[in-house]
Amino acid sequence: MNRIFGASIVSVVLMFSACSRTKPLPPTEPKATVSSPQTATTESKSGELRIGEASGSYTAKGQVVELRYAYAGKEQRFGQESMVILLTDKPIPPDAVAEEIKSQKLLLAETIRGLEYAIDENGMWVRYHPGQYQESTSKNLKEYSVNGDVVRGVDENDGSLSDGKYARSVKFVAAVVK
Questions:
Q1: pTM for this structure?
Q2: Which of 19-23, 134-138, 155-159 has the lowest mean pLDDT?
């Protein structure tokens, strides 16, 4: 009886020691990459977004699109320099980010979906991709800030201007592409 009990204890000890040596599995979700090589993605407080990440969604004509990636850069819109922010459902290849901020080739071709913002001293403008619905206002985004080469913001719109066809609730942190 003591031999069976002793063998059981040895088995349990070996099992626990084997379990304690296993490495944790890598995350299954890819992390958003920062398009600017000078800016690295940094860990932040638990639950906060990292540079290059977006969270939230928008609704366009009844279709809900989840947003995960954030990009920003300065570009001409409506005759003046604006901060252009792209929030997308799929990543933009790093070598295509600057061109996408300038001309939205992937968004217009519907290769990716997302929101395009232009923010200047007069307010903001937003366009839904796909759908091309646009809104502008003299107000800026909620909690909008530019600190160095990092843009942060929150935007919420219940769709009241479009009878509920176009609504959005998003949060983002993006590196400014140079």
A1: 0.74
A2: 19-23
